[in-house]
């Protein structure tokens, strides 16, 4: 009988520890899913784990930060145009044509303006 009581006590304690560890990981998981990276996420994780020492006060702060904090770089942010290199090549070719006399200054300025507008 004492063995059974000890086993139940052990299972309850193990469950409480596992649940506490899971709760401490929740703000970090939320921060990661929102695209928060590096030092911002580290701050949230440290605050969440410090919640064990502060009766979960800093855990609530970490949870709010994970839900509200705006990441420096968004995961879905539009990437820069890749063909800027070809635009620069076009500008160089245009300049060579202008220097060789194949284009007038007005034609050169208009074509240059069109290329720069597309960048």
Automatic annotation (TrEMBL):
Keywords: Membrane, Transmembrane, Transmembrane helix
TM helices/strands, residue ranges: 7-31, 43-69
Top-rank lineage group of the source organism: Bacteria
Xref: InterPro entries: SHOCT (IPR018649)
Every SHOCT domain range: 90-116
Name of the protein in question: SHOCT domain-containing protein
Species this protein is from: Candidatus Enterousia excrementavium
């Amino acid at each position: 009988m004492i063995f059974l009581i000890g086993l139940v006590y052990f299972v309850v304690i193990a469950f409480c520890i596992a649940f506490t560890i899971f709760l401490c990981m929740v703000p970090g998981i939320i921060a990661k899913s929102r695209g928060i990276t590096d030092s911002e996420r580290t701050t949230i994780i440290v605050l969440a784990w410090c919640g064990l020492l502060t009766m979960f006060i800093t855990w609530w702060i970490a949870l709010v930060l994970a839900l509200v904090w705006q990441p420096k770089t968004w995961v879905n942010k539009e990437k820069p145009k890749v063909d800027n290199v070809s635009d620069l090549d076009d500008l160089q070719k245009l300049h060579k044509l202008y220097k060789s006399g194949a284009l007038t200054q007005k034609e050169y300025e208009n074509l240059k303006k069109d290329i720069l507008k597309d960048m």
